[in-house]
Amino acid sequence: MHPRASHTLRGYxxxxxxxxxxxxxxxxxxxxxxxxxxxxxxxxxxRATLKKGNAIIAGGAGTxxxxxxxxxxxxxxxxxYNWGRFRMMGHGSTAGMMAYGDANAIAMExxxxxxxxxxxxxxVIFGVHATDPRRRMWxxxxxxxxxxxxxxxxxxxxxxxxxxxxxxxxxxxxxxxxEFEMVALARAEGHLLPLPRRPEQHAxxxxxxxx
Length: 211
Description:
With 211 residues, the chain is of the alpha/beta class. The protein has one domain (28-209): TIM Barrel (Alpha-Beta Barrel). It contains 9 helices and 6 strands, in the order E-E-H-H-E-H-E-H-H-E-H-E-H-H-H. Helix 3 links the parallel strand 3 and strand 4. It is globular, with a radius of gyration of 17 Å.
């Protein structure tokens, strides 16, 4: 039996049977290579890109085939957000901000079953919905790291929400502070950390990242 078929990751059980015709595509060596892409080595690769005068290119993937060709096209990072699933359905990215599914679970499903099995060298970034009150974030970040993701980012994010609804979110505890707490926790866990998604809030994000 292939290791993925019987793998339990801190309670995250793979529910799907693995076809014997696809088992050879998921060698243990690829898993070991993926887990070797720690934050320090990823940062070194990105600094080397900048030193050459090149821009850092990150491509969002909603399927395995898009991730495969993002890597082959020379991107520096592959990013998985829940909205990738909606975009592949033909819907706008804003659907990823709505209550149309569990954002963390959707991103994990895309990563575990489609992207991580086919991307070989390129670091893969996981979009964390940090304000989900059902998640124990220290536990979830551990799952993300052990699955083989190189880093996390804060998306879906409440930073792009304003007005009355933003006020309600802040008052009820599903606030941007949760995102910064996730960033600080991920920093402590050894994740590579891009800054949060809005320039005017980078200062707060940098403080959380550097704690």
